[in-house]
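[Meeting: bench + compute handoff]

Bench side (C.D.) handed over the final construct sequence. Compute side (W.E.) agreed to return the predicted structure before the next meeting so the bench team could plan truncations. Sequence as handed over:
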Amino acid sequence: MAKKLAILGSTGSIGQSTLEIVRRHPDRFKIIALAAGRNKDLFKRQIKEFKPKVISLTDAKDINELKLDLSYKPKSYYGDDGLLETATCGVDLVVSALVGASGLAPTLAAIKAKKDIALANKEVLVMAGGLVMKEVKKNKINLLPIDSEHSAIFQSLVGHKKGDIKRLILTASGGPFLNLPIEKLSDITHEQALNHPKWKMGKKVTIDSATLMNKGLEVIEAMWLFDMLPEKIGVHIHPQSVVHSMVEYIDGSIVAQLGPTDMKGPISYALTYPDERIDCGIGSLDLCKMDKLTFMEPDKDRFPALRLAYEAIKTGGVMPAVLNAADEVAVEAFLEKKIKFTDITEIVEDTMEKYRSQKPEARSQNKKSKIQRSAPSTSQLEEILEADKCARELAKEIVKKISNRQ
């Protein structure tokens, strides 16, 4: 029987790759629901091809116009309510591929509705990892990572005991500016920052890759996903992007997952889990034609975003949500050419500090060296969303001041 799928973010890069796999295996998968943002032209083509029973767009006007051009009548929704309807309809698996904080509420709703989750939206665990994993265990569902790094770790853990793990090693390409002199980083244009040397991704993720914020967010995600202390999660720069991540065990063994730089690999693994793997249209990785594979420690001066992520973990509570919200605002401002590339992490750091000054309870209570992994004190979605809102307002104020100076 075909597995019934809902895709949140069907017009994004992950959504489109997921639909490519469905096209190759129509006997294995059935599209039941699709949700997207504002790309209504692509969304219309997807609907006409896959004929889902449930559809949703951001704006009511767009969805109403779209319905007039369809030969059948799916259930149609819009806005935040539409995402919730899409995430909780009659499916086996929800592909959570929205960008940013918008994916939290629908993904959490899907978990509570006992749907398995294929997670590409790392912000879900960054913002509310404690709350989300509590619901995952309570509802006994599978939370399957689509991020290439977390999928690699997930695959490298199969057949091993958690007690045997020494550390997790997330790999990072280093982005397009790995070897650019630090004094030239402030002159980077958004066109240059969007030119990733290895991966084809959405704009937000591509910019985060250039600042290495994506790796900081992934450390937080891995902490919750694999129930691992952050001091046992390391980051290695690996420019070739062949080794997608590794697990080191206490006997000195390192198990790694290698593959081409194509997101259809981790997507297909999540779609078929725990069944056998499928051909997802990726070519073979020819190791004999490769040059050397190199690894190095991240330069803390070049990539301050990684430090900020560990600081957010140390503070605990809602601070990871503050980190994420500030980064979303800063990246958007950079893409709109309001700030410089180097302003992104400065805005995030200033937002975190301002939030701490306004919310004394947000300051770290940790007196020991061991990093905390505390969830919000009330473990409530409202607390997290309130912190997200406050951080966005603070970050926008900082952006405005910076843009006025330039």
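W.E. noted at the follow-up: Confidence is low (pLDDT under 50) at residues 365-372. C.D. will use this when planning the next construct.
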